[in-house]
Specification:
178 residues, mainly alpha, 6 helices, 2% strand, extended
Length: 178
């Protein structure tokens, strides 16, 4: 068994890379089932969703939010989304999110984020401990491969053990009474 020592800074870089890849996926496809709502979601009022104004939100009214989102992205009004329209929407979302992240990170307001302004990695120590199955203080190549496989399986199932379908209908996409 070959030992590969990864210090906490290297592990932090690895965790950051995984986070960037996951964020890219979320930008392209929107949040998966079980993910936190998009930042703009909480800015939508009840009245905006309650289209018929009856004081209750129906499943169809909630579903129509997706249709409205698609229509906003369909810039040529073709009724469908081209690759270019989806890419443009993803780039716009990524740009907005990056601007917000930059604003939060640039603590001294000098229009530049330095290494000491970067967020401190949370859970890096806990992640290292999980990967270091034999508690040796280092991560072997075998432990690294096991952790990678475990993470891939988790990502495939989503955070709640369900298949991650990236917007494709699943068994729980229809209310129980329909």
């Amino acid at each position: 068994m070959t030992k590969m020592t990864l210090g906490k800074p290297a592990l932090a870089v690895l965790a950051l890379g995984v986070g960037v890849l996951a964020a890219g996926s979320a930008l392209a496809f929107g949040p998966s089932r079980g993910a936190a709502p998009e930042p703009g979601f909480m800015e939508i009022s009840f009245a905006e969703i309650d289209i018929d104004g009856d004081g209750e939100i129906s499943f169809e009214e909630l579903r129509s939010m997706g249709t409205a989102r698609m229509q906003a992205i369909d810039t040529d009004n073709s009724g469908g989304l081209s690759l270019e329209e989806m890419q443009a929407a993803a780039v716009a979302r990524a740009s907005d999110r990056a601007a917000g992240m930059f604003e939060r990170m640039d603590r001294n307001g000098d229009a530049e984020v330095t290494a000491d302004e970067l967020p401190k990695p949370r859970r890096t120590g806990m992640m290292f401990d999980r990967m270091d199955r034999d508690s040796s203080g280092t991560i072997s190549e075998e432990e690294f491969a096991e952790a990678k496989t475990h993470m891939q399986e988790r990502m495939k199932k989503g955070h709640h053990g369900k298949d991650s379908r990236h917007g494709k209908p699943g068994p729980d996409d229809t209310p129980k009474d329909q």
